[in-house]
């Protein structure tokens, strides 16, 4: 081998090593989606999923009251005077894209408090937006055809392949009365500060918060939101009995996810009595620790207003 050839080979190796080093730094430190996902998948490999300390018992719930159990992330099972509602159902071990070999995406830190098979009959599914940690197709496919769905504008096509049929789409300010075998519930969509694209380029999709009204009682489901003044417009002549509000993934994503302090401020602006925190402890989506959001929440919210603290806990009104 000539000296010239050896020199050229050495340069190629040097360039390759430099590119590999640059790629390694990018994967290790970049906040772009691809390297963040790579780091998440590597950290998740082999990690055990914790079991929740509490298990809801919906078969024992009183149909003459409002009862809510946090199943994990933004999934709450609500018995609204005998009518069962499930918010943003995500009940499998990972969330993300399904490429035919399973779901590729973040792994749960803690298992869901109930599996799909352990749910009571769900009358209504409430979907805030199309992000994969909120609209999980494997979970939706496990629900029966008798379950109705209310979802954000331009997201109804995602229900193709489920048994639930066509979902009712609502834009900001729209309302509908959902009629079920367990009675009726009024659902109204309101503006939040987030975004709705599922694949980054489908930016036309909507994103909502919701209010629920039945038998003179009111519930807020805040969906996913950064700090916004829109909750103030929800205030009316009677207080909201319960606000289900996100409190996690704010570091460094405060532009699209509120802090616990901001979440309380929005619930207060709407006139909510009790506060049920979601969007924390379940997936590693932000850079804050798993317990930081609930600790910050406890520092600013009156103890008697805090509905629950841990996955699987159940809260009853009245």
What are the defining features of this structure?
318 residues, alpha/beta, Metallo-beta-lactamase, Chain A, 7-stranded mixed sheet, 6-stranded mixed sheet, 5 helices, 24% strand
Please explain how this structure is put together.
The chain has 318 residues and is α/β, with parallel strands linked by helices. The chain has a single domain, classed as Metallo-beta-lactamase, Chain A, CATH 3.60.15. 20% of the residues lie in helices and 24% in strands. The strands form 3 sheets. The chain has a 7-stranded mixed β-sheet, with no helix packed on it. Strands 9-10-11-12-13-14 form a 6-stranded mixed β-sheet, covered by helices on one side. A two-stranded antiparallel sheet has the order 4-5. Strand 4 and strand 5 form a beta hairpin. The radius of gyration is 22 Å and the shape is globular.
Q: How is the topology of this model organized?
A:
Layout: H1 3-29, H2 33-44, E1 66-72, E2 75-80, E3 83-87, E4 97-98, E5 103-104, E6 124-126, H3 137-141, E7 148-152, E8 168-170, E9 175-180, E10 183-190, E11 209-214, E12 217-221, E13 240-246, H4 260-270, E14 272-278, H5 292-300, E15 314-317
Parallel strand pairs: 3-6, 6-7, 7-8, 12-13, 13-14
Antiparallel strand pairs: 1-2, 1-15, 2-3, 4-5, 9-10, 10-11, 11-12
């Amino acid at each position: 081998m000539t000296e010239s050839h050896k020199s050229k080979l050495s340069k190629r190796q040097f360039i390759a090593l430099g590119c590999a080093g640059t790629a390694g730094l990018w994967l290790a430190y970049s906040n772009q989606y691809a390297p963040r996902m790579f780091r998440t998948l590597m950290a998740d490999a082999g990690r055990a999923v914790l079991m929740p300390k509490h298990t809801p018992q919906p078969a024992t719930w009183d149909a003459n009251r409002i009862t809510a159990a946090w199943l994990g992330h933004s999934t709450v099972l609500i018995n609204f005077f005998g009518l069962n509602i499930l918010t943003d159902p995500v009940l499998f071990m990972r969330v993300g894209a399904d490429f035919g070999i399973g779901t590729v995406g973040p792994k749960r830190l803690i298992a869901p408090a109930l599996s799909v098979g352990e749910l009571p009959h769900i009358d209504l599914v409430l979907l805030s937006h199309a992000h994969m940690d909120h609209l999980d197709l494997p979970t939706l496919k496990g629900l029966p055809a008798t379950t109705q769905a209310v979802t954000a504008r331009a997201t109804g096509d995602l229900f193709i392949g489920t048994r639930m049929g066509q979902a009712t789409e609502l834009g900001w300010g729209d309302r509908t009365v959902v009629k079920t075998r367990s009675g009726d519930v009024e659902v109204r969509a309101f503006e939040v500060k987030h975004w709705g694209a599922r694949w980054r380029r489908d930016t036309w999709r909507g994103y909502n918060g919701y209010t629920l009204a039945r038998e003179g009682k009111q519930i807020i489901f805040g969906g996913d939101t950064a700090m916004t003044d829109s909750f103030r417009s929800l205030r009316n002549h009677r207080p909201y009995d319960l606000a289900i509000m996100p409190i996690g993934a704010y570091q460094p994503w405060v532009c699209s996810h509120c802090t616990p302090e901001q979440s309380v401020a929005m619930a207060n602006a709407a006139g909510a009595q009790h506060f049920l925190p979601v969007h924390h402890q379940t997936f590693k989506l932000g850079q804050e620790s798993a317990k930081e959001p609930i600790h910050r929440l406890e520092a600013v919210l009156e103890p008697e207003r805090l509905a629950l603290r841990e996955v699987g806990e159940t809260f009853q009104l009245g």
